[in-house]
Amino acid sequence: MTWVANNWDLIATLTVAHLRQSVLPIFLGLVIAIPLGWLAFRFRWSRGLILTTSGLMYTIPSLALFALLPPLLGISFLSTANLVIALTIYAVAIMVRSVADALASIDPNVRAAATAMGYGPWRRFWAVELPLAGPVILAGLRVAAVSTISLATVGILIGVENLGYLFTNGLQRRIVPEVLAGVVAVMVIALIIDLTLAATGRLLMPWAPGRRTRRRGRRARMVTS
Amino acid sequence: MNLFADAFAWLFSPDRLTGPHPLPQAIAEHLFYTFVSVAIAAVIALPIGYLIGHTGKGRDVAVAIVGAGRAVPSFGLILLLVLVLGVLHKPAAAITAFVLLAIPSILSGAYTGIEAIDRATLDAGRAMGMTQWQVFRKIEFPLSLPLVMGGLRSAVLQVVATVTLAAYVGLGGLGFYIIQGVPLRRFDQILGGALAVVFLALVLDGLFALLQRMAVPRGVGAGKPHQSGAPRRTNKGVMEQNQDFAVETGT
């Protein structure tokens, strides 16, 4: 505990850096996953292509992805850009499937009703489909946010300083509380972001099914559990 | 693209078979740590997961463990355990970390696998006079198998990725080439090592995808995977859910 008390400033600085590096991929991931998820939901040919590709991207271990991106994109190996792009790829890979599943879970009658009321495809997507798909997309977003935050620590291996610094530095100096502080800090941040997203979702989407609807809400829960 | 040519040249150079850290040995180490850890994790997590799924008790605890497990930074956990257990017990420390990381996916595969079974099927079994054990052995176990395999698949992927990181503490495996290459600026070695890791991960994932498909009992999931837009139920659902599951867990 003394180590934490004496190094509070360091932990705070690294936490801010950590958040900066993870929030961008989470946000970009969502923005990219929505159109891709829609494509995967809408057309049969694109479904297999998009879901398989995102599944394969997810399979690539993080350290290997850091090594693959620089020659492909012409960025520096030891750079924040490398970390942010890799984390964005993982976030997209997680969320594309939730978006596709969320859109597929909408009652076709609701879609037909919107069309019958004169909604064009564009307006129907924003006013009917996306709000109804929202709760399941949010579940995917929460999973992606938590994994992104914990995965970002690997950035220290490519020279990007965030809470992962406490791991390598703590190991080199053999300070157990330092490494432990890093692990706990990452989990606390992940928990805070997760709860914030859940609360925001509840505020923005009061129509989301409650937690008690066990049988009917199973698909939504499958994603979170 | 020249870098990739260099990486392949490095990968297929005859030097990879000799020297202090030959490629086949690195692959063997990587596979050894992966399978040992996942096997230990399965021995611990499967019975607990089945029990939770069968009784429906302790579900909230399991959900919390699975959720928290996702937030644990795997790299930090390895370094923490290596420090705590001592540098002399590096393999034991690393395997402990891998096991802890593999448990949530396997646990979740086991209890969601049983939960995803149509309640009517279980009721039918009970109505036929099956004991609890028979219900488990003859209904729950086979029907949950695809999701259980999905859980093992995510666990394997997670551990393969984490073993790569464990090269940082000198555990060997394929991550060694990447981590050793960084300070040396040997980009052919870094990229070559990365390609080997990707190849290994994809092969294992493909293998488990196959096992997952084979685990679907005959008569179940006979229908094709769903058309988009259609609400899905029971049989088809199992196939669907295990794909979801594979994507949603692990790192």
Explain what you see.
The complex is a heterodimer of chains A (225) and B (251). Chain A has 225 residues and is mainly α. Chain A is 79% helix and 0% strand. Chain A has helices at 2-6, 8-42, 44-59, 62-73, 80-104, 108-116, 121-151, 164-172, 176-204, 218-224. Chain A is elongated. The two termini of chain A are 33 Å apart. The longest helix of chain B has 35 residues, at 132-166. Chain B has one domain: MetI-like fold. The model of chain B is unreliable at 222-251 (pLDDT under 50). Helix content of chain B is 76%, strand content 0%. The interface between A and B is large, with 71 and 60 residues.
Layout of strands and helices, then pairs:
The complex is a heterodimer of chains A (225) and B (251).
Chain A: H1 2-6, H2 8-42, H3 44-59, H4 62-73, H5 80-104, H6 108-116, H7 121-151, H8 164-172, H9 176-204, H10 218-224
Chain B: H1 2-11, H2 23-55, H3 59-71, H4 74-85, H5 90-115, H6 119-127, H7 132-166, H8 175-184, H9 187-214, H10 234-248
Helix pairs in contact in B: 1-9, 2-5, 2-7, 3-5, 4-5, 5-7, 6-7, 7-9, 7-10, 8-9
Q: What would a concise description of this structure say?
A:
The complex is a heterodimer of chains A (225) and B (251). Helix content of chain A is 79%, strand content 0%. Chain A is mainly α and 225 residues long.
Q: Over the alpha carbons, how many angstroms does the gyration radius of chain A reach?
A: 20 Å
Net shape of chain B: elongated
CATH fold-type name of chain B: MetI-like fold
Please identify the top-level CATH class of chain B.
Answer: Mainly Alpha
Number of strands of chain A: 0
Q: Whole-number average pLDDT of chain A?
A: 88
Estimated share of beta-strand residues of chain A? under 5%
Q: Strand tally of chain B, please? A: 0
Radius of gyration based on Cα positions of chain B: 21 Å
Low-confidence stretches of chain A: 213-225
Number of domains of chain B: 1
For the record, give the distance between the C-alpha atoms at the N and C termini of chain A, rounded to a whole number: 33 Å
Number of DSSP helical runs of chain A: 10
Oligomer: heterodimer
- Report the major sheet of chain A: none
Under the CATH scheme, the architecture of chain B is Orthogonal Bundle
Task: Please state the structural category of chain B.
Answer: mainly alpha
Largest interface: A-B, 71 and 60 residues
The biggest sheet of chain B amounts to: none
